[in-house]
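Appendix B. Chain record.
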Amino acid sequence: MKKVAITGNIGSGKSAACKVFETLGIPVFYADQQAKALYGDVRVQQSVREAFGDDIFDMHNKLIKSKLAALIFNDKKALQTINNIIHPRMMQQYANWLEQHANAVYTLHEAAVIFENGLDVYFDKIINVSAPVELRILRIMKRDQLTRQAVENRMAMQWPDEKKNEKADFVIVSNNKRFLIPQVLKIHNSLIK
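Structure tokens predicted for this chain:
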């Protein structure tokens, strides 16, 4: 089974591309969703508390995600700290998930920061979903109800598309001008050969 990563910057259209792959019967591991779920794990909460203090938890001991986001998307060292807490656990979940999908021709691992976190070494092929910066900003402002500055802060923590496109094996252009399905089908046909 080929292990394929699908990456792309915030607002690039990764999720839309993944949905097309899923309609083709390809299993998709959504790393960002798995990472968010890990924040409910008591051990993760303890590590986060040790790293960032009690201020990012409410009176019911629940993580205040907006406070954590404000920290990590404005400080590369804080982002690296949270990645060191979350990524090893998430990659263990991914390994378990792969075992459940061992019969698939290939699987997709969806995550925004494959290259930035040096995870590209785990995959046979990498797809980057690329979109113009302004379009990405507008998508995220609308989807997440964030200010332009908050979106730009998050974008600053990711590599530019040009750098990701150079390292990727395949590039999907998500610019509202090129159709998504034919691009996915072309990549899919290449991967099943």
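Further analysis of this model is presented in Appendix C.
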